[in-house]
Amino acid sequence: xxxxxPTATSQPITSPCPECEGPVRFDRPPLAGQVARxxxxxxxxxxTSTSPLTLALAPEVEEDWGE
Length: 67
Description:
Blueprint: E1 13-16, E2 23-26, E3 35-37, E4 44-50, E5 53-57
Antiparallel strand pairs: 1-2, 3-4, 4-5
């Protein structure tokens, strides 16, 4: 009798924070342009590439003031 085949479980994906080098975790494969927050330093990060996974500081939101 053979053992049951284990089901494939997706592992979280991590990438180092460019600000503090702490691990930034994604439970699902991230999308380009997705914004995440570093749990160590709290900075907002943007996914700039998915292969390889690359993170950069997210641009600051600027107010338009109707111009």
